[in-house]
Amino acid sequence: MSAGHAATQVEQVPCTGGLLLALSPVPPLTADQLAALDPEASRRRENDLRADLYRLRAERPGSGVCADAYNRLAWECAAMGRPLGALHENSADEAERFFAKTVQGPDGHVYWTGGKHFRRNDGMQRQPARWWWEHEHGVTLTAYDTLEPTCGERGCLNPDHRQHVRRSRQIYTEAQMLGGLQVLAMRLGHPPTTYDWTRSGRKPTTNVYQNRFGTWEKALAAAGFTAYRSITRIVTRADCIRALQFVHRLTGKWPTREGFEKHRDQLTAQGLPRSGTSITTHLGDGSWPEAVRQAKSNTD
Ligand SMILES: [Zn+2]
User: Distance, CA 152 to ligand 1 centroid (Å)?
Assistant: First the structure.
């Protein structure tokens, strides 16, 4: 970049200057001064001029000041020996590469024209809005940090249009949640119901379990309580007798197997065994008449 080349560029690009320079915080320099800037200074200057251009486009869309700002950017970059435009998409400078893929919308919105992620110089991928936020604030966002758009434009990247929300660190891992179920089950002697869990005052709430696992039963299954129903409904001989007595009182007669199973719902509501198989398994050695006989003999 020779001073002579830069001077030619300055002559070729008319820049009205006056109003723009009054609006811009970037002080004017001569072509020779621009050409003498070191690469870091010229990079900063270009970024400042770009920021200026974007700001003016947002504040005064379509005005001549924007055209002036663009012309100023173009000729200053030429004077500094910096290529404009597409070449920046391959720049070794991370910020240059990033901003080359942004476009300015109305009201200060800024949109992304690149892929889903932006690749940093260290090889890490970032969502564009998160990269810009980190770049602007000099922070590293974690999985707990979310950036919510506040301008109503979901795709808008502008950090000034985003609100930083830090989620609670009180996040339970699956292993912690399942371990909690196992501990309480051991204490209770059976897998906990949602009622047991809530009454124990343990965290997280049953809602969190249901959101994570789908249902409470699925959470229990994941905790290893695959036989949840049979474990919580351990059927004893006495239960079978009470079940037959219950149907006897309900109908006034000792039921057949089919007659018994017609009362499934009432039996379930009473917490009693409801299938003929479960009766004959625990009472009567597989025989329904024998089960009924034993129930009768236990009834006054
Ligand atoms: Zn916006």
Answer: 7
Neighbours of 271 (CB within 10 A): 12
Residue 21 CA to ligand 1 centre (angstroms)? 26
CA of 55 to the centre of ligand 1 (A): 12
Torsion over CA: 159, 24, 48, 116 (sign): positive
The number of CA neighbours under 13 Å toward the Cβ of 32 is: 0
Distance 109 CA to ligand 1 centre (A): 4
Report pLDDT digits (tens) over 17-63: 566 766 778 888 999 999 999 988 988 898 888 888 878 877 777 67
pLDDT tens string 167-217: 765 578 888 999 999 999 888 887 888 888 988 989 888 888 888 888 888
Please state the length of the chain: 300
Compute the distance between CA of residue 273 and CA of residue 239 in angstroms, rounded to an integer.
7
State which residues have CB under 5 angstroms from ligand 1, the bound ion: 109, 151, 153, 156, 158, 161
Cβ atoms of 251 and 259 within 8 Å: the answer is yes
268 Cα–ligand 1 center, Å? 58
Whole-number Å distance, alpha carbon 111 to ligand 1 midpoint, is 8
Give first-to-last CA distance, the chain, whole Å: 112
Q: What separation in Å is there between the alpha carbon of 278 and the centre of ligand 1?
A: 65
